[in-house]
Amino acid sequence: MRKRTNSLTDTGTGTGTGGSLLDSDPDLKQRPSRGAAGPAAEDREEPGDDRSMAKPFRRLGLLGKLKRTVLWLLLLYVSIPFIIKLCPSIQAKLVFLNFVRMPFFIDLKRPLDQGLNHTHNFYLEPEAGLKIGVWHTVPAQMWREAQGKQGDWFDATLSSAHPVILYLHGNAGTRGGDHRVQLYKVLSSLGYHVITFDYRGSPPDSLILESPFTNIREEAKSHPFSMVYRYLPGFDWFFLDAITANNIRFASDENMNHISCPVLILHAEDDSVVPFHLGKKLYTLASQSKTLIGHKVQFVPFPSSLNYKHKFIYRSPELSNILSDFFGTADPNTQ
Predict the structure, then answer these.
(1) What is the pLDDT of residues 278-315, one digit of tens each?
(2) Among 150, 164, 267, 304, which is most exposed with the fewest C-beta within 10 angstroms?
């Protein structure tokens, strides 16, 4: 009896003869026993089967979402040209971007907040009900005197020997844009008065164009935003003709025939917003203009290796020499 008990324990079967049967029959050894683990084994197999069946459904669900996303993007892609063509007000907003205020939440009444502690903010009213904001930044060497001063003091400084630069910023944003503020600081440190305002046009004694284009049609065709449409049939009709019909022109190439003052064009070769070739083309037209005969027309390129792109020409250490050479004056800091 003791030996039989030991044999049952070692083989794990329910009968005394089970051990010898399993040992002698390999088929029986590999066949699972339902008596010992039947229900439990079935329970373990079922969840595995459910998971393997759920994976294809999950893949189908993701594929369906991807298809819907692609369809929405395609619909948006097709709709945009029609919206721009049919809605002139949207065209103007996309060109001027006057609704964009970057950086956000700045108070233009406080240029001090932008690090311009020698700048006076005031307003012009060219016509009833219309106010134009203006910043006057004095040369950096006057910053101590400028502390706590009012508009009369700033006005009086304009009679100094330091030249005055009117800075007319491009589309989008305000006179408080970061790269614009950095340029005011550079020009101020070079000894210039800087007056920047939300302009509508003024006749200057000389004209400096930073990263300019020839006209809005050529710029719109070259702008990165148009890349996804410019090679499709109907691009001119949907976009360029619509802009022209809305009387948005920015015809700098034509205006060169009406300018009679020295012109300086600055352009970076790696400018991706306004391609370098448009600035060079504008310079060629200006140098051929009859109204500019006898006036200095100068083009200064900045190599791609400098990485100035569209906004960062102000970083050039040569800017002081370029400006003083163009104005035909000594460096304002030496005066």
Answers:
(1) 999 999 999 999 999 999 999 999 999 999 999 999 99
(2) 150
Helical packing angle, 88-96 and 34-86, nearest 10°: 100
Contacts of 321-330 spanning 24+ positions with Cβ under 8 A: 322/264, 322/266, 323/187, 323/190, 323/192, 323/208, 326/206, 326/208, 326/262, 326/264, 326/296, 326/298, 327/163, 327/206, 328/296, 329/163
Q: For residue range 63-93, list pLDDT tens digits in order.
A: 888 888 888 888 888 787 877 777 766 776 6
The continuous run of DSSP H or E covering 130 comes out as strand 130-137
Strands 297-302 and 263-268: parallel
pTM equals 0.59
Q: Tell me which H or E stretch contains 25.
A: none
CA distance 101 to 111: 15
What's the 3-state SS for 59-128? HHHHHHHHHHHHHHHHHHHHHHHHHHHHCHHHHHHHHHCCCCCCCCCCCCCCHHHHCCCCEEEEEEEEEC
CA distance 140 to 74: 53
The string of DSSP codes covering 240-272 is IHHHHHTT----HHHHTTS--S-EEEEEETT-T
One-letter amino acid for residue 158 of the chain:
L
Task: Tell me what the mean pLDDT of segment 25-51 comes to.
Answer: 51
Angle at 277 between CA 325 and CA 260, to 5 degrees: 45
Distinct helix (H) and strand (E) counts, the chain: 14, 7
Cβ contacts of residue 85 below 8 Å, gap of 6+?
237, 238, 239, 242
| Strand ordering across the sheet containing 193-197 | 119-127, 130-137, 193-197, 164-167
